[in-house]
Amino acid sequence: MKRSGRPKWATRFYDRFGQERWRFRRKGYAQYLFKHKLGEPGFWQEYEACVAGLAAEPIAPGAEKAKAGSFDDLISRYYRSPDFLDPGERTQVVYRGVLERWRATVGGNGRRYGEGMVRDLAAHHVEAMMAKMLPHRTAANMLRKRLGALLKFAIRQGLVRDNPVTPTRPFKVEGGGFHTWTEAEIAAYEARHPVGSKARLALDLMLWTGQRGGDARLMGPQHVRGKRLVVTQEKTGATVSLPVLAPLAASILAAPSGSLVFLVSEHGKPFSRKGFGNIVRQWCDEAGLPNCSAHGLRKAAARRFAEAGCSNQEIKAWTGHVTDSEVARYTAAADQTLLSDAAAERLIANLRNRLANGEAKPLQGKN
C-alpha cells in the first residue's frame, strides 16, 4: 500500500470491529496505539509524544535489572507515576531530559549517579552537583527542583524518610527570563513581515491570544467555535475560550493555511515544536530583533492587558495561568509610567467621590 504523506513510523490498521486505527511502531521503542485517527485534532500531539519517547517509551536493554533502591530503579517508577505523567507532554520532555542527563553523569567513584542508592544521597551531595554546573545557575536550579520532586516521590515509595534536597538553596538568578516584546519591537516585526505572510500569522496567533508557541502552532479551524477560539493548552491541560479579535481574524484569512492547522511548514504540515522555535528565531532575526523570542510574545500579550487596566482574573482568563504570582511575572514589564498615571486617576476619582459624599476633606490643587 502506498504510504507517501503518512507520518514516519505510523501505520493504519483495522481492529476486530472493522474500525480504522493507527499505531506507532519504531525499532527500539514500545508500540503505541493512537487514540485519534490521522486528520483528527489530537493525532499530532500523540505523534509528537511518541517521537519524543514519551507515549512510546524507549526500550532499554537490561532496564529491568536495575538494582532495587537505586536511582535507576526510582526513576523508572517515577516515569510511570502521576507525578510525572500529569503535567503536559512538553513538560515531561523537559523533566525527562534533566533526569536522564543527571543519572548518566559519572561521579567521582566512577559510577553513574543512576547506579547510586537513593538512601545515600545527602544535602551536601546535591550542593556539590549544583556547584559543578556553575556558571549555569538556571540549569543548576532546575536540577535541584527535579531532584526535589523525585525525592518526594521516593518518600512515598518508602525508600527514604527525608528529602535531602529540602535543606539546600537555589542560586540567585538575575534577570526576568524571556524578554518581553516592547511595542516598538512588535512594530518592527510587523513592518518586516506584513499581513498575509506566515511570519506575521505566527506573531498574531501568539500576540492576540496570549498562548504559548507550542499551542499557537497547532491552532486550526477545528478550534473555532463561532467567533471564538477554544484551545486546550498542551503544557497544563487548561482549556481557554477566547474571542477572535479583528487583527487575528484578518491575519488568518490573509495567510495560506492547512486543513488541520492555520500555520503550516513549507511541506504543508504542522511545525514541530523545535522547528517552530527555529523558524520564529529566523523571522525575528530578519526583523533585526535578536533579543525577541516566541515566548516573549506571550509575555507581551499579558503586558498589554495589564497596561489596559485588566485585573489579574481577567488576564488569567486569557493566558490560562492559575496563580496571581504567575501573572505578576508575565506582567512585570508593563509600562510603569502608564500604570502609575492610571492609579493616580483612580485615586483622585475615589477621593472626589468621598468628598461628594462628605467622607473626605476638600482636595488641594487642581487635580
Automatic annotation (TrEMBL):
Domain Tyr recombinase, first and last residues per copy: 166-343
PROSITE patterns, per the entry: TYR_RECOMBINASE
UniProt keyword annotations, A-Z: DNA integration, DNA recombination, DNA-binding
Pfam entry (one): Phage_integrase
Family: Belongs to the 'phage' integrase family.
The name this protein goes by in its record: Tyrosine-type recombinase/integrase
Lineage: Bacteria, Pseudomonadati, Pseudomonadota, Alphaproteobacteria, Sphingomonadales
